[in-house]
């Protein structure tokens, strides 16, 4: 690509008023989390097992990769749920299940009164208008043989949203919305930078005016300076069109900036979910605490103080044969017998805070005894206790008005 | 020796800008863009002119022959050849004559130009039909095999491998006498039967390479995110195959066509040269076959069909190259 061709494109991107600071002023504080807001997507016990086939002529199924193993969460109207976790924990698979790029093994995904998990591919087509996706890699998510106009116009044509003659005008509007020069209609994706390509991908996702956008690591392939622009663009379109986001990422800072609610995944399960303050300031799961300790903190760097880093030992276990009980126990420094014997339930411990750990507590305040024994009907070692009966726990994917208080070890009401 | 201000030409900057900006923004399809790029490629233009000339020759062979006043199979050995069986007019023994611009054939006295013109028709006809049909078969089977993983893919791949293992020359050699025997009593039917048989053999052995290529391309492309994006948008599978995937395979397809056309031209000539192709209809291969033994005394007889094959094959190859470059948005020339 020659310099002259780059110039108009970059100047167009420059017009977009974007840096972290300026956007922070524009949209004031990030949106607050409202646990009573209406849920637009309600996922219950979603599972996806990929079969593992043997090699050879007759390919038998010899096992399953438990990529997603029973996750439940809600995405609220116009809000954003951040899904974080390390590579291979199933967060991208969850996103692909919701857009039905994969067919779920079990579970339900209620969206506007319909269960996306059981819809046939034909019945899914009208729903595709409502649920769209932004992809991770801007270099492979745009067809290199299509012009920008074709790429952004395809969803409009497929769903007959506007008459053929108005597609061009609509595409130009969309390009303007995402801060691109509408005159780039005829260009090919390879003439654009990564950030501009991601804007094209966002314009394509916005074309159908979806209610829910699954953003699968939308900024992780971009430069840090461009990340800020794209995240702020997503914030702007979210507010303008009132779109709910399922924001999949591994960058805790980006998620904190964008999402009022955060879910932490480990090996196919949600280990902690809650509003931003609960998860970031009062993390109760050791894995979340380890993740947070690993993310750099500008304020602390400026003060000069240094947080204690938690170093996790070993690798993530194989999802084909996950550990018994708590899946994190092989790398957890708090693990005891009960962790191998009993799987911790995802327990609501605050107004909008759930955690799945037998020793749920804030960092360095580990309780001497497991907090879940009374609920599960087991003793401290995880063996069944004849004297107590297990309590039936709520399976609500959202938040109940009654939760289990860790200090008093009893259910309290809001 | 310095220039005075008056001697300097006025800078003609004023005319340059603004014109491009004024241009209307309108949707241009990738095909239009590719054609525009092709038009600015000189080699491509020269080659397509050559190919076009050959196509015109093939289509208007009877008219051109009439224009020169020549005919196929008009020779009479007793009146047109001398005692050494060489033609009595034109090369090699006599000068150029408009009666037979490329001379007459030894032994028969047939007109070479007429044979050459009709030979171009046979060559291009068989090559075009074979290429078109085998490309269509190859694309379809490749797309189906690549997109339908599982048992169907394995069955198709096995069939492709089987076909690749069959020897083309041997089957053509075996088929020729069978066809000749079958239609021996019907000379007119035999002519067409031979043409159809040759075309079928070429198609039969021409589609596997492309099918395999396309299957591989689909396998690598189907996991790309833009295909998944199309599925998220609800684009039907048929459109994903033909609108999203196929344009990305234009390069291998055009390369395959551009290599297939000249291959079929040479294959047809080669088979006819070996005597297992066509016999009743004029073709360059047959002329080459007949002319080889006269090369030292009558080289023009051999040069005419060889130059025809050479020019056509080179032009087709270069044109294929240029078209591939024009369709690839990543090449800059």
UniProtKB/TrEMBL annotation, chain A:
Domain of life: Bacteria
Entry keywords, A to Z: ATP-binding, Nucleotide-binding, Transport
InterPro entries in UniProt: AAA+_ATPase, ABC_transp_ATP-bind, ABC_transporter-like_ATP-bd, ABC_transporter-like_CS, Oligopep_ABC_C, P-loop_NTPase
PROSITE patterns named in the record: ABC_TRANSPORTER_1, ABC_TRANSPORTER_2
Region (Disordered): 1-31, 366-397
Gene3D superfamilies found in the cross-reference section: P-loop containing nucleotide triphosphate hydrolases (3.40.50.300)
Pfam families: ABC_tran, oligo_HPY
GO molecular function, one term: ATP hydrolysis activity
Domain ABC transporter span(s) in chain numbering: 52-292
Bias (Polar residues): 386-397
GO biological process per UniProt: peptide transport; transmembrane transport
Family: Belongs to the ABC transporter superfamily.
Protein name: Dipeptide ABC transporter ATP-binding protein
Gene source species: Nocardioides islandensis
Lineage of the species this protein comes from: Bacteria, Bacillati, Actinomycetota, Actinomycetes, Propionibacteriales
TrEMBL record, chain B:
Residues annotated as signal peptide: none
Organism: Nocardioides islandensis
ABC transmembrane type-1 domain mapped to chain residues: 120-320
TM regions (residue ranges): 43-65, 124-146, 158-180, 192-214, 253-280, 300-323
Main location class: membrane
PANTHER family: D,D-DIPEPTIDE TRANSPORT SYSTEM PERMEASE PROTEIN DDPC-RELATED, OLIGOPEPTIDE TRANSPORT SYSTEM PERMEASE PROTEIN APPC
Pfam families documented for this protein: BPD_transp_1, OppC_N
Domain of life: Bacteria
Cellular component terms (Gene Ontology): plasma membrane
InterPro entries assigned: BP-dependent_transpt_permease, MetI-like, MetI-like_sf, OppC_N
UniProt topology in membrane: Multi-pass membrane protein
One GO term of the biological process aspect: transmembrane transport
Compartments where located: Cell membrane
Family per record: Belongs to the binding-protein-dependent transport system permease family.
Name of this protein: ABC transporter permease
């Amino acid at each position: 690509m020659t310099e002259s061709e780059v110039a108009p494109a970059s100047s167009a991107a420059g017009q977009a008023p974007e840096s972290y600071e300026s956007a922070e002023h524009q949209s004031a504080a990030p949106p607050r989390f409202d646990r009573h807001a209406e849920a637009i997507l309600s996922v219950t016990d979603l599972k996806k097992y990929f079969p593992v086939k043997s090699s050879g002529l007759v390919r038998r199924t010899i096992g399953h990769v438990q990529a997603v193993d029973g996750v439940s969460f809600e995405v609220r109207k116009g809000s954003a749920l951040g899904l974080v976790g390390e590579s291979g924990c199933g967060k991208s698979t969850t996103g692909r299940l919701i857009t039905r790029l994969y067919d779920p093994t079990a579970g339900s995904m209620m969206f506007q009164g319909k269960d996306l998990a059981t819809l046939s591919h034909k019945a899914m087509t009208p729903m595709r208008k409502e649920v769209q996706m932004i992809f991770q890699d801007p270099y492979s998510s745009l067809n290199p043989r299509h012009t920008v106009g074709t790429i952004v116009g395809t969803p409009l044509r497929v769903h007959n949203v506007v008459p053929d003659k108005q597609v061009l005008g609509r595409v130009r509007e969309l390009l303007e919305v995402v801060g691109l020069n509408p005159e780039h209609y005829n260009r090919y994706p390879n003439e654009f930078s990564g950030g501009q390509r991601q804007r094209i991908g966002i314009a394509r996702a916005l074309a159908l005016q979806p209610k829910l956008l699954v953003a699968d690591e939308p900024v992780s392939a971009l430069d840090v300076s461009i990340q800020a622009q794209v995240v702020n663009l997503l914030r702007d379109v979210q507010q303008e069109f009132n779109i709910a986001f399922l924001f999949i990422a591994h960058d805790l800072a980006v998620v904190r900036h964008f999402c009022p609610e955060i879910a932490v995944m480990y090996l196919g399960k949600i280990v902690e979910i809650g509003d931003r303050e609960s998860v970031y300031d009062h993390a109760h799961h050791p894995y979340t605490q380890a993740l947070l300790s690993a993310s750099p903190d500008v304020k602390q760097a400026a003060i000069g103080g240094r947080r204690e880093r938690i170093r996790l030992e070993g690798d993530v276990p194989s999802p084909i044969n996950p550990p018994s009980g708590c899946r994190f126990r092989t790398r957890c420094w708090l693990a005891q017998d009960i962790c191998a014997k009993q799987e911790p339930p995802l327990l609501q411990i605050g107004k909008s805070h759930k955690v799945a750990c037998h020793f749920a507590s804030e960092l360095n305040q580990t309780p001497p005894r497991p907090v879940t024994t009374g609920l599960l009907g087991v003793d401290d070692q995880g063996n069944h206790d004849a004297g107590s009966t297990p309590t039936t726990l709520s399976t609500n994917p959202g938040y109940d008005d009654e939760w289990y208080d860790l200090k008093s070890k009893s259910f309290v009401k809001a | 020796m310095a220039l005075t201000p008056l001697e300097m030409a006025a800078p003609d900057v004023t005319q340059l800008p603004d014109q491009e900006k004024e241009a209307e923004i309108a949707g241009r399809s990738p095909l239009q863009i590719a054609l525009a790029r092709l038009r600015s490629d000189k080699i491509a233009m020269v080659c397509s002119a050559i190919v076009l000339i050959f196509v015109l020759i093939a289509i208007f062979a009877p008219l051109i022959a009439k224009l020169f006043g020549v005919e196929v199979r008009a020779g009479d050995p007793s009146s047109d050849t001398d005692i050494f069986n060489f033609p009595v007019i034109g090369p090699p023994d006599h000068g150029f004559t408009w009666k037979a611009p490329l001379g007459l054939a030894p032994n028969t006295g047939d007109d070479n130009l007429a044979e050459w013109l009709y030979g171009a028709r046979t060559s291009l006809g068989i090559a075009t039909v074979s290429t078109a049909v085998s490309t269509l078969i190859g694309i379809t089977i490749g797309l189906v095999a690549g997109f339908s993983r599982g048992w169907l893919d394995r069955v198709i791949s096995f069939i492709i491998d089987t076909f690749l293992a069959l020897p083309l020359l041997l089957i053509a050699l075996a088929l020729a006498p069978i066809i000749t025997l079958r239609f021996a009593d019907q000379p007119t039917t035999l002519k067409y039967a031979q043409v159809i048989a040759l075309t079928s053999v070429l198609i039969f052995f021409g589609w596997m390479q492309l099918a395999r290529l396309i299957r591989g391309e689909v396998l690598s492309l189907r996991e790309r995110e833009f295909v998944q994006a199309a599925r998220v948008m609800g684009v039907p599978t048929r459109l994903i195959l033909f609108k999203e995937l196929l344009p990305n395979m234009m390069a291998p397809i055009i390369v395959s066509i551009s290599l297939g056309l000249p291959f079929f031209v040479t294959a047809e000539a080669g088979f006819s040269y070996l005597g297992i192709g066509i016999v009743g209809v004029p073709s360059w291969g047959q002329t080459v076959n007949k002319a080889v033994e006269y090369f030292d005394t009558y080289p023009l007889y051999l040069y005419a069909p060889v130059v025809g094959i050479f020019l056509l094959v080179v032009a087709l190859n270069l044109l294929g190259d240029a078209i591939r470059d024009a369709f690839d948005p990543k090449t800059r020339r």
